[in-house]
Each structure stands twice: as structure tokens, then as C-alpha cells.
Amino acid sequence: MLKYKNNLLFIDDVSVFDAAVKVGTPFYIYGKKKLLENYKALDGAFSKAKHIICYAVKANENPHILKILAEKGCGVDIVSVGELNLAVSCGINPKKIVFAGVGKTDDEITEALKKDILMFNVESVPELFRIDKIAKSLGKIARISFRVNPDINAKTHPHITTGLPHNKFGLCFEEAFEGYLLAKELKNIKIVGLHLHIGSQITDKDSFELASKKVSGYIKKLSAAKIKLRYIDMGGGLGIKYNDEKIITPAEYAKAVMSNLPKNHTIILEPGRFIVGDTGILVTKIIYIKKTSKKNFLIVDAGMNDLVRPAIYGAYHDIIPVALREGEKHNWDIAGPICESSDIFAKDRQMPKVSEGDCLAILCTGAYGYSMSSNYNMRPRPAEVLVEGKKWRVIRCREKL
Ligand code: LLP
User: Fold this and answer.
1) CB of 272 closer than 6 A to ligand 1?
2) What is the pTM (predicted TM-score) of this model?
3) Which end of the chain has less Cβ packing within 10 Å, N or C?
4) What value does the mean pLDDT of the chain take?
């Protein structure tokens, strides 16, 4: 998606520098072409199986991005009523909405039942009873899956692994089995599926294969207890290349996920990062070049309130100049203006020559970038821009003070 033309960074046919001059910094800028390519690649990889792609809204909830995906027939994975209402208003078919989360409130359950979503991914027995009770009061039948916690170490960052016994998500196989037996007896509940999500930014194919194997054995056990499923929701988690990771291709992923699954079910996938991660960059300007006896800093106008991943996960993001200059390379700590020592985007990072006022692009920030942004230090959130071929437009205005 990114290339330099005459030393200026372009997304497809749009100069990032031109957009920066008009929009001001910091801002996120996304490429529609790449977004569609990612969606198509994943959808195509599963073409042999009945499947629904339920994009994880939390990765990037810009309405224009959701509308593009809705037009392609994409569904969504949601975790709040905010995401539910947004998705439906953007044209996502409620019959393709799955609802996860350990803390669904009564209001959220009510709204999801009224909108007749595809299914609740239930994370505890008390939640099951709550859904049944609310469904009864509304005269509805709630379709449900249990989220199982398959005890798989997906070898990712400890903060984003979710499939281990000590994680708060889902229920272990045995407890979920008890849950299914209880659910069978509830009048306003219809069991339709099984859900799992083993973590995020997974680059280890074997973890997906193991999940698929464990699920297939479990489905046999459920079937023996006369619990029949229509949907197997394998969650999200497919990793992307931020640095030097060896990533799994969509074809390898599809093979691993489907390797052991029975053929007569509809597979649901909940990719977030894979769909949007590499479609976006965060553009920021160097405000000061600060050289001290110990360290050299590029102080930029984006902060951890705009992009929190480096601060909270130590996440690596490539950073490149928007306009290349001739000259020597230097090493820099690239820091934001927030009053926290962790407000650092890169440490000792070698960069081509840069000057005050230059723009930098922080790469692969389409997922969990804007969606995790905040107003910390009373900073307005940045603008968002979408590139469509030769054109670009603001798809969310910069917040005003
Ligand atoms: N499904 C469920 C139930 C999830 O909890 C998540 C992400 C996804 C799908 C999408 O996962 P993905 O395909 O994007 O890996 N803020 C962290 C990532 C947290 C992911 C939370 N759950 C980060 O910036 O790396």
C-alpha cells in the first residue's frame, strides 16, 4: 500500500504529505484498496467452507470502514451496545452479528435481542440465565454459543492471550458442557454454536490447529449428549507483520483452522487486526529535536493518547519519514507530548535524516489505533482520512477542544 514517489510517501495514488498539509497532524490515514484486499484474501481462503466473516469492530470502529465491509456482506463481532448500534446503522446485517464479552449488561442483552442478532457468545452460567430471563420478558428466543476456553498458549503477548485457564474469558470445556446441559432445558434459549478466541496477533499456526483439534473432539462429546451445533465460531487472532515476524498466510490459516473441523457446520471467523491493521498509518509531526547528554529525542505531536500500543504492550511499529531527505542516519527515541515516561513510540530507532517540522508515519496502526485512543491530558482525538484511489477524504474530523 505504501511507496515513495520522488521521495514522498504515497498511499496508492495519494501523497501523505499533501493530506498532512490540508488536515494538519496528527491523523490516521487508511487505504480502502488494501482493506478490500485483506477482506477478499481471508474470505477467499475459506471459500470451500460455509463461513461468515464477523469483523471485530473493536479493532477499528470508523463508520466508513464498517460501511465498506457491510457492502461486501461482512458480519461483525461486537462487545458492547455501542458497537451493536453503530454496526447496524452502518448496514451490517444483524443476522451476521455475534456478541462476546464477560460483562454484558441487561440493557445490552435487551437491545441485542430486539435487533435479533445471530448469537450471544455466552461467557458464564449466570449470563446464560440472565439472557434467558430477559428473552422471556421480551417473548423472544435467544440464540447462544458458549465461549470455551481451550487452554491453549497462543504464544503471544501476555496481555492479549485469552485462551488460558487463568484468563477471565469463557469457560473450560467441562464447565461449558455443564452450561450446555443447563441451556438445553431453558425455554427461551436456543443452542446454536460454540465459540472460542485464543488470543490476538498470533503467528503460530500450530495454536490454531490445536484449537481446531480440541474443538472437533468436543463437538463429538456434545453430539453424544444430543447437543447439535450449527455454528463454530473460531474467533479472531490472525497476526500481521509489524517487524520481523513470520506470519501465517490466509491459506495456511484456513487450513489450520479447518484441519479438524467437521464439514457440516458454518464456520465463523472474527478477524480484527488482519482486516484493518496494515491499512492504516498514523501521521505525526516532529515538534522539537531535543538532544541531551544521555539521549536524543524526536518529540512528536502524536502521543500515547492517539496510539497506546507501544506504551502498554511495548508494541513495535515501524516509523518512516513522510518526505525523505538526503543525509546521515541517526538514532532517536521518538516520544510524544504526554506526561508519562511510557509515552515513547520507539527507542534508539535508526532513522534517515529528519528536521523539525517533518512528518513521520507510524506504520501498521489501522487496528487498535484510533479505537484505543483517549483524551488523556485533555488532548483532542486525531482526524481520520480514507484514501480511495486518487482521492482522499476526512472520514472523522479532528476533535475540537
Ligand atoms: N474476537 C474476540 C472475542 C476478541 O476478543 C478479539 C480481540 C477479536 C475477535 C479480534 O482479534 P484480532 O483478530 O484483532 O486479533 N488491543 C490489543 C488487541 C486486543 C484484542 C482483544 N480481542 C492490541 O492492540 O494488540
Assistant:
1) yes
2) 0.97
3) C
4) 96
